[in-house]
Design a protein that fits this description.
Blueprint: E1 2-11, H1 12-30, H2 33-40, H3 45-63, E2 76-80, E3 86-90, H4 92-100, E4 105-112, E5 116-124
Antiparallel strand pairs: 1-5, 2-3, 4-5
Helix pairs in contact: 1-3, 2-3
Length: 126
């Protein structure tokens, strides 16, 4: 049974300006070490950061909560399986929300262009 859905759209140029202005401090506050390494190895890292930021926001929206409501953005990490399919690894407050709500499956889809990145998260429970 579907119990939550969230979608988010990020303007990559806007995120790129934030990264240029705030640098490593911003990256370390929002993204995991693995996400920073993954995005950093791409020529246009901002589109990959944009997709990950959109995934984090989509996850919060799928729960019906916003920033500052018990889930830190670093508690939500975009990872990939052996085939490259994106998934969410959850920690801290994000993991607690999933357990509390008895969610059994999290679906994630990402897409991006030079200008925009988008993500959708779908939550299921039995």
């Amino acid at each position: 049974m579907i119990c939550g859905i969230g979608i988010d759209l990020v303007e990559n140029g806007r995120l790129e300006k934030i990264i240029e202005k705030r640098g490593v401090k911003f990256l370390n506050r929002v993204f995991s070490t693995g996400e920073i390494q993954y995005c950093g190895k791409h020529v246009q890292s901002s589109i990959h950061y944009g997709a990950r930021f959109a995934a984090k926001e989509s996850f919060l929206k799928s729960l019906g909560i916003g920033l500052g409501m018990g889930v830190n953005l670093k508690d939500i990490e975009v990872v990939h399986d052996k085939n490259g399919k994106p998934a969410l690894a959850l920690y801290g407050g994000a993991k607690a929300q999933i357990k509390k709500r008895k969610i059994t499956k999290i679906h994630l889809s990402l897409t991006h262009t030079k200008k925009y990145a988008t993500a959708i998260v779908l939550l299921e429970k039995k």
